[in-house]
Specification:
Largest sheet of chain A: 7 strands, mixed
Low-confidence stretches of chain A: none
Low-confidence stretches of chain B: none
Oligomer: heterodimer
Structural class of chain B: mainly beta
Largest sheet of chain B: 6 strands, mixed
Helix content of chain A: under 10%
Helix content of chain B: under 10%
Mean pLDDT of chain A: 94
Radius of gyration of chain A: 13 Å
Number of helices of chain A: 0
Strand content of chain B: over 45%
Shape of chain B: globular
Number of helices of chain B: 0
Strand content of chain A: over 45%
Order of helices and strands of chain B: EEEEEEEEEEEE
Largest interface: A-B, 26 and 23 residues
Chain lengths: 113, 114
């Protein structure tokens, strides 16, 4: 089974802090994604990566950056956390042979106070 | 622009009753369509997908969905709901560009009455 893990289930940070959310997948998938999930808005794509050291902006990249130094790991960085970044963050991965079939991690609920 | 609409925010059904969750999409070409389920506190799990071919697709946990091009719909159905089906359900369309991204609907929360 594909397994996507995220470093924290719950995280509380203060405004202005730098925040790192880590995601690791164990199925050698080429593509990795970061979404945020907010009530009534569904999931919105923040960034994605289709190869090591490659990254592409999604629909709502402002205030975020990403890093992919290894194939299995994709990090989301909030350079200076703000209260409007309080949300559920979901990581996903997919293979090149099944591009759209994404496997999701359990999510990190981030609260910025 | 591509979009997915799930018109029902909440649906309540009795255990053993049938279920239909609605999904409408806006997309210029033949879409890749998906249904995901999210149980409380969990990530999303793929229920089923439609790429081409037979418009009635079967998924896990006894779910099925029917693609209707004329109605731009991909509704999810289950003949008999179990209490464990209580969750949030998301419909998604795959965007066929270099991003390979999914566009999600806003979700439908299913409540099951005992």
């Amino acid at each position: 089974d594909v397994k996507v893990t995220q470093s924290s289930r719950y995280l509380v940070k203060r405004t202005g802090e730098k925040v790192f959310l880590e995601c690791v997948q164990d199925m050698d998938h080429e593509n990795m994604f970061w979404y945020r999930q907010d009530p009534g808005l569904g999931l919105r794509l923040i960034y994605f990566s289709y190869d090591v050291k490659m990254k592409e902006k999604g629909d709502i990249p402002e205030g975020y950056s990403v890093s992919r130094e290894k194939k299995e790991r994709f990090s989301l960085i909030l350079e200076s956390a703000s209260t409007n970044q309080t949300s559920m963050y979901l990581c996903a991965s997919s293979s090149d042979s099944n591009l759209y079939e994404q496997y999701f991690g359990p999510g990190t609920r981030l609260t910025v106070t | 622009a591509q979009s997915v609409t799930q018109p029902d925010i909440h649906i309540t059904v009795s255990e053993g009753a049938s279920l239909e969750l609605r999904c409408n999409y806006s997309y210029g070409a033949t879409p890749y369509l998906f249904w995901y389920v999210q149980s409380p506190g969990q990530g999303l799990q793929l229920l089923l997908k439609y790429f081409s071919g037979d418009t009635l697709v079967q998924g896990i946990k006894g779910f099925e969905a029917e693609f209707k091009r004329s109605q731009s719909s991909f509704n999810l159905r289950k003949p008999s709901v179990h209490w464990s089906d209580a969750a949030e359900y998301f419909c998604a369309v795959g965007v066929m560009d270099s991003s390979y991204k999914l566009i999600f609907g806003s979700g439908t929360r299913l409540l099951v009455r005992p």
